Every structure is written in C-alpha cells, then in structure tokens.
Amino acid sequence: MVVLAFWPTWGRIADETAVGAGSALVFAPLLGGLLTVSALAWRRRPELPIHDRQSDAIVGTVVLLIALMGQWLLVPRYAGAYVLLHIDVMAAWAYLLGCCVFAFGLRRTGRFWAAWLVLAVASPGAMRLVMYFLGGGPWAEAAVVAAVVFAGPVVVIVRGVRRGRPSARVQWAGPAVTARQAWRSVPLLLVVGVVLWLAPLPGGAQTRLGHGPSGPAGPGQNVPAGWTERSVQDIPWAPRMFGPSATLYRQLLRADSPRADWDTLMRPRQAVVQTLTVSDPGLLDLYPLEMTYDLTNARVGEPEPVDLGHGITGRYRTVVDDERLLTWSLLTFIWTRSSDHVQRVSVLTVDDHEYDAEFPETVHVAGSTFGRMLSLLLRGSASVTASGPQDKDLAMLTELGTDLVEAQWQTQ
What we know:
Blueprint: H1 2-5, H2 7-18, H3 28-42, H4 53-77, H5 82-85, H6 87-104, H7 106-110, H8 113-121, H9 124-133, H10 137-163, H11 179-184, H12 186-197, E1 209-211, E2 227-234, H13 238-242, E3 247-255, E4 270-278, H14 282-286, E5 298-300, E6 304-307, E7 313-321, E8 326-338, E9 341-350, H15 367-379, H16 394-410
Parallel strand pairs: 1-8
Antiparallel strand pairs: 2-3, 3-4, 4-9, 5-7, 6-7, 7-8, 8-9
Helix pairs in contact: 3-8, 3-10, 4-6, 9-10
C-alpha cells in the first residue's frame, strides 16, 4: 500500500537519481529500519497481553492525518526545496506507521520503536545537512549512509547483550489484533492511500533546461557589447555544495553608457552575473537558487517567464529585503553547455544605482536557509512572498539577458 500510494514519489526519486541528484540516499533509513527490526525481533522480550483497539484508532488516525498534511500542505509550501527535503518520503513513513498501528495494534507496532526512530530522525534534509558539514562528496555520503544503516541495529544488539537473552521458557503474548479487526481497517487505509497518490509533486529544473552553445568559454560568461567587466570572483565553497567539479563565478558588469530609460539621473547601471557550472542537472534542484543568497528577511516575487532568444527562457523575479530596505531584481536561466556541463546563470540588479552600490553577497546553505524555512512553516507563504508587480528592471534585464545569451553563441 505504501508503494502504491507514493508511486509518483518513487518514480520521481528514480528520475532524480538518473540526473545526478543522489536522491537514492532517501532509502538508507528504510534499510536501517529493516535491519533494526531484525535486531529487535532477534532480541524479543516478553509482552503483556494488554490491548485497546480504541487507542489504535485514535493514534492511527492522527498519524494518517500527519501523512496527509505533509503530502498536501508541506510539499507544495516547500516546493523550492522539494529535492533537498523530500517531505513526501517522510509522509510515506508516517503512512506506513499509521497502517501498522491499524493492522497490528499500537502496542505491537510500538515494540519496534527504534526502527521508527531511525525513519523519523534520518530525514532526507537532515542527512544532506550532515553531509554538507562533513565536507560533501562521496566519502561524506558513504559515512552518513553507513551511520544511518548500522546505528540502529548496533545499538539494539549492544543493549540486548548487556541485558542478556530472555529465558526460553518465557510465554509470549499472542496477536493483540484479530484478522477480522485488521481487515476492517483496510478500506480506510485504501482511501487515505488514494488521496496521497493524487497529491501533485513540484516541477524540477529539467522542465526549464535549455540548450546553449557547446563548451564553457571560461570562468563566467563572455561580456556582451556595451558592458565592461569590473571584477570577477571565484566562489571557493562551490565544490563542497555542488560536487568536486562544480565552479561558481561572480562577475560585476557596468554599462559603458548611461541610458535615461534605465536611470533618470543618467548614471551607468551595474549588474552582477553569477554562473554556476555543475556536472549533473539534478544538483540544481537539490540546491535551488534561493539557497545561494541570504533571504532571511526577504520576500521573493513570483517568477515571470522571459524570452531570451535561441530557445532560452529565463525567469524574472524581484526580491524585497525588509531589513536593508533594498529591492533587487533577478533574471535566471538554465542551459547545457556540453554533455557534462550544465549552467545556472543569474543576472542581478539593485535599486541603488550609485557606482559603489552594494549587491547581495553569494552565500552557501546556512542558517539563513533554515530560518526562511521556519518562517515559511510558522507564518505561511505571505511572509516570504513579495506581493504586487515589481518590474522596474524587467526591461533592462531582458535586454541584458538577451545580449548575454547572444554573446555566448557568437563565440562558437
């Protein structure tokens, strides 16, 4: 029932793994839970013949409601961090727990508490966070997977050895839930499973992936005509977050001539072009663009599609920083540069048009990301979403983005 109810999730995980997101990591807690169940079954202890079917119904219903809320409310709310968090996987474990409570009883299900603890604690987001703090890469992933898989059974076996095996003369309690009682709960579990199966899943970067010119031209992007590169910065933490071969460059561009439609005081405008190059497109879904900026006290507008030519479609958004009283505009597009290079290019402007204007810094995933997620959970989407039209730099970024795309094709 869990396999069928979350069939779209399992298919999505397979697709994400195929494009390099490493989402198969989410099955490590399941393997660890199964090994923990085996260890607990081997260390069976006497059970009291106490059972309350009413308690089963109450607890099982609450757990099923948690699964439904996670799938229908939290997954859409955290659509931007779907691959990172995979809340639907946690909803699947909650549905599994609810099914077991109805089918086998709360007391019998609770006897395997250590296995449920493994599934609850080793969430996809928590494992990704630990991997990041360990430095990222295959060794960090192997260490996290090994810890998740073997920690539960090792702890159970060690505790059992210290207590000693129970006597073979102990009389074990029989099944507390009859077969008839278990089958009577199946229609409810089927209905809940169908509702879970109908829940839509967010789209990914693959749906926005365009085809660019073959081969990266170098660090960053070629500067289009009419603009001058003032500085270029190599972000050192990119391999830790996006893989050993990842690069992240940040270019500061300045217009050669002022334009009245861009600034009424005829000041030359500036823009930051940020280029993230990765080996697999799935990594762009794992760590979305919002996680590379500090958006703790910022509200982000809804994306607006922008045609940049050559079949490339960008996404224009505005960001209102309530703490700095600053509004900045962001244009992003994703394209392939070769068979093993995918780029996410971001063009950023601010409403401060002075020569020494301060642009938002590029940051790695940190407390700002989790603070934003907490605000989204407690205060809703209104706390992180900018309302009303904010397109003051839409025309400028559309022209700059189009010229930027054209400049890369001209070098081929």
